[in-house]
Amino acid sequence: MSAADPAKRFASLLKRLRAEYADAVVSPIEPPPCDERATSLEGTSSPGSVGSMSGSAPPLPPAPLPPGPIHPFVADPLVHELIYSMLLWEATSAQAKSAFKRLREALVDYNELRVCLASEIAELLGEKYPLALERSERLRVSLSDLYKRRHRLELSHLLGGGKREGREFLGALEGVPVFVMARVCLIHLEAHGIPLDVRLFELLAKERAIDVSEGTGSAGLADASSWLDRQVHAGEAPAVHAVLQAWCDENGHAPKRDRATIKTPASALIASECAAGRIVTPVKRASKDPRRVKAPAQTERDARKRGRPND
Q: Which of 133, 142, 167, 257 has the greatest CB tally within 10 Å of its CB?
């Protein structure tokens, strides 16, 4: 097969998918309201404004919000996109949106997500979520690495820099796949690139519409992603990503390693994290129940029964 054959097949496939998924669009993930108190206080009127209900007076403007912190999940839009893209990687859009909602409902803010154990995050995602434990570990270490670099969970500094600097910064974050880096840069930095994961790679390979010489490893996907970027004209990447994602949502399959990953016991995962120095084994505290604390005399009697002196 010549090098031009996959490119021609990809162009033909893309033409067909554009017709099939003409309504597909890609847009930034919508963050929660700026302040949830605004919803509960909307339309609140001051005492003495009862007459406004009968139409005798124009309605009063909403009461001002009381002082206090805004909703904790109102963070940098790029951080929202980073986390959503991590959930979308090797999953469907419906799964990612549902998981994103569950995380926001269960956690106080993204800092709590950063300090959670991978097994705890995986439990929130659900047992059947693709690559649940691996994804959870990637989420945790990527947020931790971002916090170490910036001393807070923010990526807004990338908006004022170049596209190449943004790609390099996101690509250097520990645990961030090429798919996630490319997607965040495409949506928020307008950097040219087509997000590619194993799900999409295998669909394209089945159509013989991508160069499969490098395989699906980390380096292979990076090279395949670069090849894919060269097949799309500048400015068309968002529309192409939208139709490819819609196609992948309907026809893609999670990587085969997922089944073994989600069956790994939580205890084994925590043990591996301890061995890698990622978390510290908690020290058991002494019981405060006096019935469970042996008195010195009882300890001495037990030692004599065992036939050795009490140390």
A: 133
CATH number of the domain that residue 168 is part of: 1.10.340.30
| Residues 221/178, Cβ–Cβ less than 8 Å | yes
The pairs formed by 100-109 with CB atoms below 8 angstroms and a separation of 24 or more are: 100/29, 102/126, 104/32, 104/73, 108/72, 109/72, 109/73, 109/75
Could you give the number of structural domains in the chain? 1
172-221 pLDDT tens trace: 999 999 999 999 999 999 999 999 999 999 999 999 999 877 565 666 78
Higher pLDDT, 150 or 29: 150
Q: Tell me the residue type at 214.
A: E
- Domain assignment present for residue 187? The answer is yes
Judge contact between 66 and 28, C-beta under 8 A: no
- What span, in angstroms and rounded, lies between the C-alpha atoms of 149 and 155? 10
